[in-house]
Amino acid sequence: MLNLLSVDLGASSGRVMRAAFNGEALSLQEVRRFRNHPVHISNRMYTNVYGIFQEMKWGIAEVVKTHGHIESMAIDSWAVDFGLLDAGGHLLDLPRHYRDPRNVNAMREVVSHIGKSQLFQRTGIQLQPFNTLYQLYAMVQENANLVAAANQLLLLPDLLNFFLAGEAAAEFTNATTTQLLEAHTANWDLDLASQLQLPARLLPDIAQPGNVLGVIRDHELLQTGQLATTRVVHTASHDTAAAVVSVPASEQNYVYISSGTWSLMGTVVNEPVIGDLTDKFNFTNEGGLGNYRLLKNVMGLWLIQEVQRALEALGEASDILRLVHRARMAAPFPYMFDPDDPRLLQVGNIPDTIRQICVETGQRPPADSGSLVRGIFESLALKYRMVLDQLELVTGQHYGAIHIVGGGSQNQLLSQFAANATDRMVITGPVEASATGNALVQLLAIGEVAGIEELTQLVRQSVEPVSYLPRDTDVWAGGYDAFQRIVAKQAAAHNLTI
C-alpha cells in the first residue's frame, strides 16, 4: 500500500488527507480538518497563512505517526491570493484575502485603463474583482513601498510549497487564474504588466502540474525521521483543476460543477476559447492537467454559510440538515435572484441583502429561514441552467449529463434541483474531489500511473457516484422563464455592469 498525502485548502476549511493506493484503486481518509477564516484588521482582510501552515504540519505529523513513510505529498488551494517574499525568502506581510473590498475599485480602474474586451482577448480570463491582477494593482496603489521591498510573488499553494521545500515556482493551473498570463502562449503578459506599472520582476517561472518540485526541508517535520525522502509534487494546485481530474466521466464531452463555497461550472477543452460569446457571457479559460477548463464562477454555498452565520447571531438554529429540511418543506419558488450580484460577494448580512434584492425586483422577501434557504437553492439551480445554455452556445455542444463534485455534492436537495432546472441527469461524487484529484496527479508525477488515460480509468475504479434524474421539468421551465426576467430586473435596478 502506497501512502500519499493531499493537503486541500478551501475558502472556509482545510483538510489533510491520507491517500492510499493499492495499485488498482485510490482511497482517502481525512486525518485533520481545520477551519479557515479570514483575519480582519481595521478594514482589511487577510489570510492567516502561518496558521494554515502549522495546521498542515500537524496533519502531516499525524499521518506519519499512524502510517509511517509518506511517498509524496502535494497542496491545492483556492486561486488568486498571494504573498510577497523579500530577497531572503521572508514573507513581507500576510496575504490579503480575495474578498478584501479594495479589489472592486482596482478592477474598475484597470478595466477603464485597458478595456474589458482587451483584457479578455489577452488573457481569456473572466473579469472578477478578486483576480490577482486587480489585487496586485490595488497593492501597488495602497503600499508601493511594500511592493518595492519584494523579490517574488507566490500564489498560496506555491507559497506553502516554498515554506515546505524551499523551492519557488508558479504552478500552471493556478497561474492561469491570475489574469496575468497570455492565453495563447501560457507565459506572463509582460506588456500588460508594463501598461499597468506592475512589477513583472516578481513573477516566478511557471511549472506544469504532474512534476516533482523537491523534497521536504522543513526542520520540524524532518524531526519525525520519516520524511527525508518524501517528494513534494506540483499537483494541479488550483483546487478546481484538481477537482476536475477526479470527475468519473465516461463521456468525452461533459459538464462539471465543482460545488463548495463557489460553484465552478464548465467543461474541458483543448485550447482557450476566446471569442465574442465567451466575452459576452464572461466565461473564463483556466489551465488543467493537459487541457483547459472553460467555466464560469457562480456564487455557491457561501450564501448558505453566511445565512448560517446570520442565524447564529440571532440565536437561531443554523445546522445545515435542519435548514435543508426546512427548505424542502417550504413552498416552491418563494423568490428568485441572481446569485452573482456583486453585493453578495462581500462579507455582510446576506439575508438582508437578499431581501433588498427582492424589494428591488418586485418580489415578496422571504419571511422565514425555510423560504430563505429554498430560494437560494432554487436560484443556484436556475443559474446553473443559465450557464449551461450559455456554455452550449459557446461550444456548439449538447451535454447529456452534469457531474457535481466536491462538498456540495452531498446536498441532495440542491442536486435534485439542479437536475430539475437543467433537465439533465446529475451525477454526484466524489465528495473530496480536490483532495482526490490532488493525489491522482501525484501518482502521475511519481510514475505510478503511465498517463492521463490511465488516470481517468483509475478515477472510475475509485469512485461510486450517485445519480439524480430530472423531475417536474415543465414547472421548472416556467420557473426559468421567471428567473430570466428577474435577473434582468436585478441587473437594471443595481446597474450590474462594469
Automatic annotation (TrEMBL):
Read off the InterPro entries from this record: ATPase_NBD, FGGY_C, FGGY_N, Rhamnulokinase
Q: Give yes or no: UniProt keyword Plastid.
A: no
Record key words, sorted: ATP-binding, Disulfide bond, Kinase, Nucleotide-binding, Rhamnose metabolism, Transferase
Q: What sequence ranges are listed for the domain Carbohydrate kinase FGGY C-terminal?
A: 255-445
Q: This protein's superkingdom?
A: Bacteria
Pfam families for the chain: FGGY_C, FGGY_N
**Residue span, Carbohydrate kinase FGGY N-terminal domain:** 5-245
Family as reported in the entry's similarity comment: Belongs to the FGGY kinase family.
What is this protein identified as? Rhamnulokinase
